[in-house]
Amino acid sequence: MWHFKDYNYYYKVIFLGKLRSYINTNTVILIMRREQFMELTVLPGTNRCGEKEGFDQIVIRPGDTLSIVGPTGSGKSAFINDIEVLAQEDTVTGRSILMDGVEPPEEMVRDPAKKPIALISQNTRVIADLTVERFLALHIKARDTDTRRLIARTLALANEFTGEKIALPMRMTALSGGQARSLLIADAILISQTPILLLDEVENAGINKERVINCIRDYNKAVIFVTHDPYLSLITDRRIVMKNGAVAVMLEPGSRERSVITKVSGMDSFLWDLRERIRSGDLIQERESPLIKIGVHA
Ligand SMILES: Nc1ncnc2c1ncn2[C@@H]1O[C@H](COP(=O)(O)OP(=O)(O)O)[C@@H](O)[C@H]1O
Ligand SMILES: [Mg+2]
What we know:
Elements: H1 4-21, E1 40-43, E2 58-60, E3 65-69, H2 76-84, E4 96-99, H3 106-110, E5 117-121, H4 132-141, H5 147-161, H6 177-190, E6 196-200, H7 209-218, E7 222-226, H8 230-235, E8 238-243, E9 246-251, H9 258-279, H10 290-297
Parallel strand pairs: 3-7, 3-8, 5-6, 6-7
Antiparallel strand pairs: 1-2, 1-4, 8-9
Helix pairs in contact: 4-5, 5-6
Bound molecules: adenosine-5'-diphosphate (ADP) and magnesium ion (MG).
């Protein structure tokens, strides 16, 4: 005979299993149940030549923001995949991950509903043939919360991240890449309440990065961005530079990049507005902005 609590837990697991089957796992999106953590530790592995990485450990705590930069093929995705699978020297890199200082419990590795990590990648596609409203409602139901209010809040948050507004009756499959990722990030923050978010090159899809990062900070999540975006790299607290499959260096710039950040922030919001205007069919003329003049005459 099941106790209510057991049933409830079982339901969540079944539901999340079902939800995952709606999603093309080949293109990696995982939505997971909240599990509090104090710190996640990455222990070094080896580079592509089998040489040990030059760091002792990288510790990630709630509220931390990191970016991972480096050329294509340098091992950025491999690094966050190690975190996502809670590697135990069983991936190509040989890294291992500790949760709160110890090897993660077997059930956390095995059971997606117990993993405190959401990975949203560039190729994330939701293949569930549901409306946005139904998708969110189903997901919330498994978590026994006030559905309507939470749907509205999640939608509003997603719409702060994307320039192309999402509406509840839209089909999930019809969302653009930027809309889907914005919705999934909002979902990970408000519904799944996932403590660790891994975002692999999601910036090129009309997502307001600054808003995302501020929001993630407000909710005290840890976030790791794999990114080629200079502004995003500058506004994270730590920057991991990858080379030949290994962590080459980890920078913690503190206030040293502050003056650059202010300038790049202006350029970035200018480009954001420009992108939105171009998408909506505006004709862009040089006299409108000193920044365009710089671009043209430099
Ligand atoms: N430390 C490593 N040892 C061996 N192979 C690695 C290592 N890091 C990454 N790779 C492999 O190199 C390839 C490129 O890595 P990837 O993480 O996709 O690069 P990026 O995301 O920076 O473009 C992948 O096939 C990956 O499995
Ligand atoms: Mg990659």
